[in-house]
Amino acid sequence: MASTQFFIFAILAVLVPSILATDFVVGDDKGWTIGFDYQTWADGKEFHVGDRLIFKYRKGNHNVLKVNGTGFQQCVAPAGTVPLTSGNDVILLATSGRKWYICGFPTHCANGQKLAITVLDGLSPAPSPTPTPAAPSPKAARGSVAPVHYWWNY
């Protein structure tokens, strides 16, 4: 019995993070392009470790460079930074903290093709189940407490 419970727990520990992770298509239907406000797009979104950013664009027209805060402000990638160029670039958010991305094509970053986000540790917190007390049985004595049933007891 205990080994079965451990096995189920081990499977859930592996599967749940990938099931709960979110794929964010940067810019939604606009994709990764110039003339779009990516900071407004990111406002109100929560990015968590395990989520993925997907940069969609026409190959050859843009690229994606991961930079630091200074590179983001100055629209310059550090020497040796290798751009992503597939047109369907997927970035796994593997660590928490600030992340910065720019397009390295001339003038694109200066024209708004850049994204700064904060990645939060772990998955989005799931809402806690609200225990619902069962209706007291007609035979329950006055002042007795009805049992509480939780979903994990089944």
TrEMBL record:
InterPro entries reported in the protein's UniProt record: Cupredoxin, Phytocyanin-like, Phytocyanin_dom
Q: Where is this protein found?
A: Membrane
Q: Where is the Phytocyanin domain?
A: 22-121
Its GO CC terms are: plasma membrane
The record gives the membrane topology as: Single-pass type I membrane protein
The entry's keywords: Copper, Disulfide bond, Electron transport, Glycoprotein, Membrane, Metal-binding, Signal, Transmembrane, Transmembrane helix, Transport
- UniProt entry tagged with the keyword Transport: yes
Signal sequence extent = 1-21
* Molecular-function GO terms, alphabetical: electron transfer activity; metal ion binding
Could you tell me the Gene Ontology terms of the biological process aspect for this record? response to symbiotic fungus
Keyword field contains Aminoacyl-tRNA synthetase: no
CDD domains recorded: Phytocyanin
Q: What is this protein called?
A: Phytocyanin domain-containing protein
Species the sequence originates in: Quercus lobata
